[in-house]
Amino acid sequence: MNSITKSNYQVGMPYALDHNGLKVDARDAEEHTAYECPFCHCRMFRKRSPKDNYFSSRFPGEIHSAKQCEQIEKSGKYHSFAVSESPQSLIDSLCRLSSRRQTTGQTNYKRNDITVSSPNEDLLAIKYTSLKQIYEMGIADKLPNERVGNYVVSDYYIHYNWVQDVFGLHKFDLKARILHTGVITCNPNSKLFLFRMYTPGNSYSIRFGLRCTTSSVFAEIHQKLFEKRRVDTSNKLQTVKKCTQALIAGNDWIYISQSQCKGFLCAAPDKYCNNCHGLYIATATTPKQVYPIPLLTN
Predict the structure, then answer these.
(1) What is the chain written as a DSSP string?
(2) Global pTM?
(3) 100-109, 114-123, 222-231: which range is least confident on average?
């Protein structure tokens, strides 16, 4: 192993992976021990800033090769749930329909702010402003009970792998949440998009609906998730999914039991109702509430 040299490298990462592939916060990392970048797996070590804060910095000669770690090192900033006042406030911001002036001003400020190079300074945690940022920070690798400030990860976000742990024991008050779900279908007449989570073997499943407030919101989300494609020898265009998974956000999820939703909202064939435990539905006021996960990573 090469010796670790304390040199003037730019700000690194808030955490790294140990030899078992587990995330280790820079504050808890051991001295003179090699770790890996969670995105590109270059070698890293714990480093202390002039303000006595810690971060994981790459070894001399190592180079970050993933866009997430490159951006964090370049800017000295990273997105974190912990910066938000609460899960509700973060998700409210993702579901808020902003005016053109507000969107232009705020978005451009964030984009410019995160690309300014700030070498040899402390890492700065900043708020998430989009579902895309949340997905790209590798949130799916976290554990549901992992602490984030005064909350845990599952207070903000629920992955489909956690479906039975979160929803299986009792009716769950979802309130405001970001969900990693499978894409099912849509209904233009009711301006509804349908998603689901299920266990392997489909022994347990639950559905989620986003009902759009306007036809334009429905059209923009539809363009994200579906497309027209010729799929057989008939040469007819059919609507097919662009992706199989998506992050969706809602700040007003309400629960509808299986008996209430059957044949009314999701209108699924009976065979899909056998192991279904109901439907949560929320309002979609902006296309920002849906992020299609690229097929290569599904």
Answers:
(1) -PPPP---PPP-BSEEE-TTS-EEEGGGPPTT--EE-TTT--EEEEEE-TTS-EEEEEPTT----SHHHHHHHHHSEEE-GGGSS-HHHHHHHHH----HHHHHHHHHHHHHHHTS--TTS--EEE---SHHHHHHTTGGGS-TT-EETTEEHHHHEEEGGGHHHHHSSS----EEEEEEEEEEEEETTTTEEEEEEE-GGGSSEEEEEEEESSHHHHHHHHHHHEEEEE-STT--EEEEES-SEEEEEEEEEEEE-HHHHTTTTS---GGGTTTEEEEEEEEE-SGGGEEEPPGGG-
(2) 0.78
(3) 100-109
